[in-house]
Amino acid sequence: MTLKTPRSRPVISAVIPAFNESQGIKEATIHIAEIISECESSWEIIIVDDGSRDQTYQQICQLSEAEPRIKGLALSRNFGKEAAMLAGLEHAAGEAVIILDADLQHPPNFIPEMIGKWRAGTQIVHAVKRSRKEDSAGKKAAAYFINHLISSLGGINVKNSTDFKLLDREIVDIIVYKLPERERFFRGLTSWLGFSEEYIYFDQTNRQGDESKWSFWSLLELSITALTSFTSLPLRIVTVLGFSTLILGFLIAGDTILSLIKGQAVSGFATIIMSLLLIGSFIMISLGIIGEYIAKIYEEVKARPHYLVKASVGIAGKKSG
């Protein structure tokens, strides 16, 4: 008779970053748990409270008390979604880990399809937005421009990509232990790895709870992080601007010399003023681009932890990463 070795880890882990989600976190978590349970009996859900100012963590504790497979982390402050996802990945023990939002805009009904692709051998399953019904025309245009810019310059495919993904344990370990950078762009990192991947497409549903927590500035910061993390091409733009001003300077100098040879009064005061303004703008833009990269280097060399855990429920010990 052969004895089965007890399973040391759950088969499926779900990581849910949450920030001020007390209105809907209970219903969302129960719904997600029901769907995962239909696919696999061995599972866990880790909800990461990213410094919420409402009763989100209290709701997580109640969920964990009712169902021990639901676990929670409370970060000491709002470190941002990227840090919250990393915290969840570091504490997730599953053979496969699914990351999805707490507001149900990442439809949990796609989880069985993601698990099916993983069981067939796919190590990364990306969920990609097919439509953005709730987004305004301005937000759609901004997302289209930024995603295509990052995809074109960075050499990674993030067009309409989301953080809704399934990752094999090998991928999770690589992200957690072999990618030490502090400034992270999760969507880009998973595409950059190059392991076997597949895509599923979904229509964005109505958000559960109140309005989105993403502001224009937080989205802009994420876009800058994404761009500077995967390409140095903007720095080359500085060189292009420098050569452009050099050519402009030669043209103006040539026009001035030609006027002197012809004995004409040197004219073109307006042209000189415009040239100075143009050159000044190029210099300021160049300093701004260089400054962004220096700022990222500054953040990296400080080597502060990505997050600090204030409290946890259902998870042995506390950990900062």
Task: Write a concise keyword list for the protein shown above.
321 residues; alpha/beta; Spore Coat Polysaccharide Biosynthesis Protein SpsA, Chain A; eight-stranded mixed β-sheet; 10 helices; 50% helix; 16% strand; elongated
Task: Describe this protein's structure.
The chain has 10 helices and 8 strands. It is of the alpha/beta class. It has 2 domains: 12-231 and 306-313, Spore Coat Polysaccharide Biosynthesis Protein SpsA, Chain A, CATH 3.90.550; 233-302. It has helices at residues 25-39, 56-66, 81-91, 111-119, 137-154, 169-178, 186-192, 216-230, 233-261, 269-302; strands at residues 12-18, 43-49, 70-75, 96-99, 124-131, 161-168, 197-203, 309-313. The chain is 50% helix and 16% strand.
Question: Quick gist of this model?
Answer:
The chain is of the alpha/beta class.
Which class do the helix and strand fractions yield? Answer: alpha/beta
Q: Give the full name of the CATH homologous superfamily of the largest domain.
A: Spore Coat Polysaccharide Biosynthesis Protein SpsA, Chain A
Ends apart, CA distance between termini: 44 Å
**Dominant shape:** elongated
| Integer average pLDDT | 80
